[in-house]
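If your schedule permits, I should be very grateful for your opinion on a structural question. I would ask you to consider whether the tokens describe a fold that such a sequence might reasonably adopt. Thank you for your consideration; the sequence and its tokens are set out here.
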Amino acid sequence: MKNFLLSVDYELFFGSDSGTVENCMIRPVRRLMTELNRHGYKMTVFWDILHFYRLKQLEDKVGDLYYDRDMIEQQIRTLIRSGHDVQMQIYPHWLDACWENNQWQFHHNRFSLHRLWDEPNPDDVETVMGCITQARILMESVIRKEDPDYKVRVFRAGGSRVHPFSKLADALKANGIRVDSSVVFGTKSLEPQFPFDYRAIPRDLYYRFNDSVLFKATNGYFWEFPKESVLIPGLLRFVFYLQGLFSTNSLSRYGDGKPLGFTHRELWGHLWFNLGARYFRLSPENKTRFKWGYMMTMARDNSQIMLNSKNIGPDTIRLVRELMTKKTVRFYSFRQRLAELKVYDDLK
């Protein structure tokens, strides 16, 4: 049996159609939670908290947004009551999002936290310090209704945009957050406005660091838990592509929106003209049974499987259910892993 840290990004789409909260967030996470609860396993949900922040700002003016906000809050509280873990994910472009013609209109100039101001003002959400601080306060105010001792302990930068980490370090320290889980080994973004390159980060299940996720530091203040990636040789990529053309697997998803172009290419493997070996993030989303089986065979014990709620579909749930039914995997949450490793002295 292999053990996996299971995380789920809890979010809408960011393209021309965000999709609905019901189909992109509530429905897929409810289905996944049902399967995990049946087997007694736990997951960590990374809550896109600035979406919730914006809903609270606008719900008095737009009645429909009240229902979105309430559905999210009730599901978050249900997750906590069921023993699952909820941690922080931040996409700062929500600060500029507008609700027009019954849908979200996005501007992506501030897709990365690094585009916010540097002033160390914890009350100003337009600054890095204030954004992380206000996000933590909001999360804790909701979750402490179910767990009075809850603290935000893990951070995830939206779209993997955590480098250069030095610009975020002071804000995370000020909020008592020592753990990041933003990077994927072997990946690189070609988006010129928001680049990243994680092809040379430490190839560890977790490691400690100080001011840069690119370099391991013995006894570093921060801990990095990368999302697992699997190297697929060029020939196998082509074989899996052909198998996908004739697969009877349903590759549909519950999410009903449209992805942001450059993040979609990063996720699913753009550059088919680069036919060599390539790293793919470990996830059952949109994977045929053949490709998923290979990736699970190659994945390391105690590595991290990451899902996006909006990309989960019926076959995703089926693949996860089969793993648990056959007792070939055990899933656990960040809360469980951090307690085991004694990352925080007060976490038992």
Summary: The two ends are 25 Å apart (CA to CA). The chain has one domain: 2-341.
